[in-house]
Amino acid sequence: MFLESIQLMNFKNYEEFEMSFSKDINCVVGPNGVGKTNLLDAVYYLCMTKSAFPGTEQLNIKHEQQFFLNKGSFQCDDETECIVQCAYKKGDKKSVKLNKKEYEKLSQHIGRFPCVLMTPYDTDLVREGSESRRKFFDNTLSQTDSTYLDALIQHNHFLKQRNNLLKQFAEKRFTDKALLETYNSMMCPHAKIIHQKRSAFIDQFNPLFLRYYTQLGESKEAMSIAYKSSLTETIYEEILKVNLHKDLALQRTCEGIHKDDFIFSMGEFPLKKVGSQGQQKSFVIALKLAQYEWIVKNKGLKAILLLDDIFDKLDDNRIAHLLNILAEGDFGQIFISDARPERSEKLLDKIGREVKFFNIESILNKY
After folding, report:
1. What is the extent of the structural domain holding 231?
2. Domain contains 120
């Protein structure tokens, strides 16, 4: 599976843009600010039905325009052509179509065209709070397990309704415990599925991660990923019961599956406290490479690998190890962005794979 071509209209800084790609390595080059990251994000959007970066859909529309269109042609493994079209107009709902047929639910698209994105900001997974780590692992599991994705969507839906109810209770100074229990009963089955699948996942994911971390030349440190959840020790129903007074006071659900964390450790200590910048970079690169392999093993599809401006943030040693992994590994289509074309040509020449270069500034000047 690979992306043959893309067509953009009013997507971020692209007014009108069309491009065909190599099924091997595509290197997008040009000065900073010309739109390299936006193009990789457009590819990500076709796979995940949303931007990789936070913000509303309106931020994806070119300034002073009213809509955007993002259309891609994928070559599937059975050699059939699959046309994905994502569109959004201000004041209207987002539309995602596969071969001109609109999805009833956007979740039906997730996992059909899997992808993995690596950016210079991935070390935020180490430094920031639990939400960013949950999102990463939710992204991984959602692309390979529709049952997990459905449970996650349903749980978050009822969680939002429960939180709204808690706010209403505070405003009206009245509590309907029976109604609250109804929402608890709807949340709990989905939370149990999520917990079970996260627990099983991390046991299988850890060996993949550790292998890539070692391949990046970082074999001296004892790294680990541990899943931390309040549901490991206590059933969800009991957690909600014990925290009822706290939930009512704070007007939100304080404990549960939505507060789970994945603990990144170096030896017996938190990685963010004792790990160097280089060790943290190697850690997150290994995370993303393990994510890629996990998806391939569980989907039977080679995901699209998006590497956004990573050469600029890595030292020569880590770049060499990463390129060696890309050269020797069983990777499919790869997109790489870089502000220095001469560097990319020199580095990618060592991989031994077909590389197609796109100078975005020159291409946009033709329009």
Report:
1. 126-300
2. no
Is residue 187 assigned to a domain? yes
273-326: per-residue pLDDT in tens? Answer: 999 998 999 999 999 999 999 999 999 999 999 999 988 878 888 888 999 999
Structure tokens at 331: 């990777």
Cα dihedral value 41, 47, 48, 54, nearest 10 = 0
Q: Which residues, including other chains, have CB under 8 Å from residue 363's CB and lie 6 or more apart?
A: 17, 19
- CA distance linking residue 97 with residue 106, whole number of Å: 9
The answer to whether 218 touches 280, Cβ cutoff 8 Å, is no
**pTM of the predicted model, to two decimals?**
0.95
User: What single letter denotes the amino acid at residue 269?
Assistant: F
* Partners of 161 in the β-ladder: none
**Claim to verify: residue 160 and residue 281 sit in the same structural domain:** yes
Report the residue count for the chain: 367
| CA dist list (Å): 22 to 11, 42, 83, 326, 355 | 22, 16, 17, 16, 8
Number of structural domains found in the chain: 2
Residue 164 vs residues 83, 175, 242, 253: alpha-carbon distances, Å: 39, 13, 19, 10
Going by C-beta distance under 8 Å and a sequence separation of 6 or more, which residues neighbour residue 189?
none
Looking at the fold, whether 247 and 135 belong to one and the same domain comes out as yes
